[in-house]
User: Which sequence fits this backbone?
């Protein structure tokens, strides 16, 4: 037999073997399984997101694949790189121009600085701040409880500046203060006797650790190796970060377009045998809306999964609404089905930046948050959260803030902050060209604009008047997170807002500022990886000395 004939004969034998009845049935079975797999994925997409959103998602996915292949062409990538370079140059100028042409330190000084020289440099860095945050013109970001409290927290920080809760035998006082901070927040959120928690570095870490706990618990108790979590699309980006870190499939469900609350029906449809947790917010970051936690609790109980309530932003405002006689909703551990809550002490608790609390209904859940290693050569290692060493000084500062302000103080700040938010909301509602999104209950209000007004133009013009407010997308909007500093400025904000909108109505072409241009361009770019490249470049700039 010739060499050419041998492969042909082998192929014929292989074809004959594959056409055997048993193998044919196996092939058909595999084909059916593959078909069912992809059909179920498509069906779940349509059921959860709706036919229109699912079609848009499919279109966006196809475009993403197309542009990914297109970017492989050297000429296309070169053009994109040139545009990115130009954009990043503009960003660099925007970020670094505020610092001025001052001396930069790129290596350790040969000799240490004198105290006077050091203080001069620190004052120079402080002078780079060009936003009037002390005058109450910054949305969120700075949760200042007053100069007297800041001085006390600074004193506490100084006393415990070398402490580290990793060594409780060396710093028993820090251990005690941390435990008491957790206990106070648990009490505030009406935790049961079994309630427990951990202090973290901030809301993002609190959320990440809760997701880690549910993932590990589901794997241990249910054998789930392909975990999924279901969140409303308004939930904090920290849940997306946790999904990326811990390989959890994230299912983001569209919210009700009128109330901006989690769509309970759609979230229920998204739950399957791999779902480890669902999420609700009280309140969410974008719009200040509290989801229907009672309904989510029933959903979690029915499916025997965890429900995490993100109260990082609502923190020390939401628990005092009821006592203040203000409109509220049920959101804490009194709701059956709530198994964990995150609360930032460094927001409306006015503690120094770098402290938050994640709470659990029972220690049986919390233990899955821990990292435990019994056979490390360095000894038995146990850590409650991501960090090993932690600054005990921040714990001391947090304890100081909670003990200084107390329940009466937080009740009073709740009244002031929510009162200012309601004043701003009423002012926005009185401007025909603007519309308030949903019905906020906490410290945040968001608003969009009616055509032909571009809401981002409103934001840019308010920025020129000295206001620093946050831009949102999907849908385009702006939001104000009212702080204690903002309270005296509420009336002036409404006055300036009316003036800005009136100016845009009279001359729509007077807009087209940086934010409008950026978000307008982002909305028209089908390949979102380009936007991610710009975002990565921005983060790179933060580390340019």
Assistant:
């Amino acid at each position: 037999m010739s060499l050419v004939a041998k492969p042909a004969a082998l192929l014929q034998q292989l074809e004959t073997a594959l056409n055997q009845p048993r193998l044919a049935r196996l092939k058909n079975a595999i084909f059916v399984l593959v078909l069912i797999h992809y059909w179920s994925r498509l069906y779940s997409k349509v059921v959860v997101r709706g036919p229109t959103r699912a079609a848009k998602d499919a279109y966006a996915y196809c475009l993403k694949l197309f542009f990914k292949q297109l970017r492989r062409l050297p000429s296309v990538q070169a053009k994109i790189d040139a545009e990115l370079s130009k954009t990043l140059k503009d960003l660099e100028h925007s970020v670094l121009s505020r610092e001025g042409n001052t001396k930069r330190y790129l290596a350790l000084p040969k000799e240490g600085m004198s105290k006077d020289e050091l203080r001069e440099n620190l004052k120079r860095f402080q002078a780079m701040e060009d936003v009037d945050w002390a005058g109450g013109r910054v949305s969120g970001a700075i949760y200042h409880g007053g100069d007297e409290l800041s001085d006390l927290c600074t004193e506490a920080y100084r006393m415990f500046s070398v402490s580290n809760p990793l060594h409780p035998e060396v710093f028993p006082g820090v251990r005690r203060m941390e435990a008491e901070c957790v206990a106070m927040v648990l009490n505030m959120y009406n935790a049961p006797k079994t309630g427990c928690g951990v202090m973290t570095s901030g809301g993002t870490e609190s959320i990440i650790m809760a997701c880690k706990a549910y993932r590990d618990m589901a794997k241990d108790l249910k054998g789930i190796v392909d975990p999924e979590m279901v969140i409303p699309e308004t939930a904090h980006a920290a849940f997306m970060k946790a999904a990326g870190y811990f390989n959890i499939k994230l299912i983001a469900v569209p919210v009700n377009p009128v109330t901006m609350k989690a769509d309970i029906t759609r979230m229920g449809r998204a739950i399957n045998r791999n779902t480890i947790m669902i999420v609700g917010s009280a309140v969410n970051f974008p719009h200040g809306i509290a989801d229907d936690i009672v309904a989510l609790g029933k959903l979690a109980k029915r499916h025997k999964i965890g429900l995490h309530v993100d109260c990082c932003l609502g923190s020390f405002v939401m628990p005092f609404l009821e006592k203040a006689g203000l409109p509220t909703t049920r959101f804490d551990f009194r709701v059956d089905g709530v198994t964990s809550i995150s609360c930032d002490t460094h927001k409306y608790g006015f503690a120094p930046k770098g402290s938050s609390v994640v709470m659990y209904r029972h220690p049986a859940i919390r233990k899955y948050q821990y990292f435990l290693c019994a056979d490390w050569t360095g000894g038995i290692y146990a850590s409650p959260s991501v960090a090993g060493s932690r600054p005990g000084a921040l714990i001391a500062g947090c304890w100081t803030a909670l003990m200084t302000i107390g329940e009466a103080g937080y009740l009073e700040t709740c009244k002031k902050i929510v009162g200012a938010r309601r004043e701003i909301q009423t002012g926005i509602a009185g401007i025909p060209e603007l519309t308030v999104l949903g019905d906020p209950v906490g410290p945040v209000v968001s608003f969009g604009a009616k055509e032909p007004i571009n809401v981002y133009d409103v934001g840019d013009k308010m920025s020129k008047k000295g206001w620093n407010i946050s831009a949102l997308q999907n849908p385009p909007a702006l939001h104000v997170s009212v702080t204690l500093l903002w309270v005296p400025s509420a009336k002036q904000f409404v006055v300036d807002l009316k003036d800005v909108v009136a100016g845009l109505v009279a001359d729509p072409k007077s807009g087209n500022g940086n934010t409008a241009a950026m978000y307008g361009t982002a909305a028209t770019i089908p390949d979102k990886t380009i936007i991610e490249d710009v975002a990565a470049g921005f983060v790179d700039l933060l580390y340019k000395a």
Observations:
- The mean pLDDT is 90.
- The first strand starts at residue 196 and ends at 200.
- The two ends are 74 Å apart (CA to CA).
- Residues 12 and 90 are 65 Å apart (CA to CA).
